Amino acid sequence: MNTAAATTVTAQLLLQARGLHKNFGGVKAISDISFDVPAGSIFAIIGPNGAGKSTLLNLISGVYPPNAGSLSFKDADLSRMPAHQRVRLGIARTFQKIRLFKQLSVLENVIAGFHVHHRIPAWQYVVHGAVFADDQRRSREQAAKLLDFVGMSTRMHMQAGSLSYGEQRMLELARALATKPQLLLIDEPAAGLNAAEVDSLLDRIRSLRTGGTTVVLVEHNMDLVMNVADRIMVMDYGRRLFEGMPAEVQKNPAVIAAYLGGELS
């Protein structure tokens, strides 16, 4: 690659990880992980249970600090940045175990995601003035649009805890999108979904990329991964086993032996 091309590629990188390590006592959960995520791409992370995938997402989102190595997002050093600052910077995530405000309505759950963008004087939360009312109106309108995007418009006034599992997954996605992320981390979104719900999820992830959102996806559903990912990193025992395009991953002997158990269709 010539120098000009290399410069262009570097300029397009949104997230960079170099030599990440994470230990829990004597257990090495992540060992020497490095990767790049270009802006506007879908980067998938796969591997057996216990491979360290969710731990890696926790390092990116700020749930855990790394023991060693570096993380940068838009050239900002994430290594010691708390999670709430990463959200304001443009990083959002969903969790493998759904975390909703189950006593609130569907609409209220999404509105809660807008809190990082509120610019209201503190006194307006006590004495509700025109600025507060205008902010609430905008939040409700934007939340309604996000619920429409995930196919939940008809559920917006229901209590979140009364939704089906698949609907709760979609609601958590809408709430994460309310933070207006440039980088969205999605942990096992297809878990517990039926075939129709998986197809709908796949379409929405593609739409996010089309709209300019970069996605890092941890997922066990290989049909979804192979159909949506631009690039895939395979992990095993906390290490990077292989990285490449979906077709390369399907054919790699080490991946087949360690995880897939046979070539994917």
Please characterize this protein's 3D structure:
A hairpin with a 2-residue loop joins β4 and β5. α4 (106-112) packs across α5 (130-149), α4 (106-112) runs parallel beside α6 and α5 (130-149) crosses α6. The strands form two sheets. Strands 6-7-8-3-9-10 form a six-stranded mixed sheet, sandwiched between helices. It has a four-stranded antiparallel sheet with strand order 2-1-4-5. The protein has helices at 3-11, 53-61, 83-89, 106-112, 130-149, 165-177, 195-210, 222-228, 246-251, 253-260, and strands spanning 13-24, 27-38, 42-46, 68-73, 76-77, 91-93, 183-187, 214-218, 231-236, 239-244. The protein is an alpha/beta fold and 265 residues long. The protein folds into two domains: 13-90 and 183-195 and 213-265, Rossmann fold (3-Layer(aba) Sandwich); 95-180, 3-Layer(aba) Sandwich (Rossmann fold). Residues 1-11 have low confidence and may be disordered. The radius of gyration is 19 Å and the shape is globular. The protein starts with a helix and ends in a 5-residue tail after the last helix.
